[in-house]
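Re: weekly structure request thread

Next one in the queue (494 aa):
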Amino acid sequence: MFLAYGTHCFQVFLPALSVHLHIILSQTSFGRITTLKVSSAPGLCMSFFYFFILGFSLIAMSKEIDSLPCMYQNLFKVRTVTAFIRFEDSDFQITENATNNDDKKESAFRQKLKECFHLLKSAQKGFADEGYEVQTLRIATNSFGEWACDASSAGSSSSDMVLKNRLAMLDQCLDDYDVNFCALGPARNVQEIGLCPAIVEASPRFSCSANIDACDVQSATAAANAILKISTLGEGDPQSSLAGGIGNFRFCAAASCCVPFIPFFPAAKCDSNASGISFALGLENGSLAREILSKCNGLEDLKHVLKQEFTNALSPLERISKEVASKSSFPVKYLGIDSSFNPSLEDEGSIAAAIEQLKEVPCFGGVGTLAAAAAITTTIQSLPIKLIGYCGLMLPVLEDQRLSELASETPSKLKISQLLNISSVCGVGIDTVPIPGKCSADSISSLILDMSGLAARWDKSLSCRVFPLPGEDTGSFTKFDSPYLCNSRVFDVS
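Done, posted below.
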């Protein structure tokens, strides 16, 4: 309606405006306008009137254009709206010491989760009202060591019981509010890393990570042992959500320099000094990447085309997110969008295949790949919108059909060392890589140290998520029966 009315006003009044307002441009050597003449005093009034109508028309047209569907809207989805909240030890003590149900219902941690829930639902509705699909709603907290383990009993025999009780309380609350994904932040030391398998086992809703400093062999080894232990959870129970080594989908080793507020799991974490509730977006955009890169004439114009088209695609999401934050009944901070290229399992959803459209990249992983990855990452990190998180290339082998194909060829055209090498210019690290079930802790630890060393050297947010698969060896094929994973050859870690 606004667009039609604005166009009508523009067409009707612009000719009249040209009659009443006569601008004589007398240019000096500096090209400045020195004379402005209007035909008469009545003409001056009419001219201002027409200026007003024209201005209103243009504003009306711009508002209507802003609300038009984006041409790329059907080529990507909002993978996650992630809310971030900081818990404190006292949030749970109030509930544990409550003497009646009313006190428990209004406890601090429940109130915080309630606000997160309302924010997430509001955001989901805002996007859905404009035709965007939101796949998941998630919550991420600060390090679980700051709130899930009672500081007064740390290291005592009651510590495990405190952890178990608080995880159960949190899980029940998440169930009450229908939130199925919650990252409990990173383990900060060897002792906390040892608790990660228990967290993964406690609920299919829970994810966590382990902070690893460069050259911290003890922490890397502890993380490797946690990965191996998680891979065996659910053994003997084919109905378990952990069966077949899939538990490591919800755990990773992350470089300690990883930024807070990454919306993607399992590395998502809230800053330990944060206040209030905030949120960020992560995308599933393999089809969008394919469409945009198909318009590029190779690397020559990639930066220009990608920046323009990707900005056009994401700008409506930013507008909607800001509206959600401004309309909230409680303080909410919109953090931004993780602009990472992230694949889907749809026919044209592979990021690797999208990059192979560039004439300089005949085969992903081969010559030209580093140049393309660097150019893409530089561009998507420079978009004129609010950005947060990895903002790189996501290359999860078990979630990208082309990557799994390359790994499955004989001989394999994709190795872990290649993925790590590509991460040096684009992020995000080693992701969903299947490895032998009997892989040694030392081998996994060395891989984690490679990742953390690379991240520290270039101050990059990198992580390592590998799947040791019980009963599988190097070169065998995975046997996942999941709509969320594709199958691939098992990688050699050595």
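The longest strand covers residues 77-85. The longest helix spans residues 41-66.
Next request, please.
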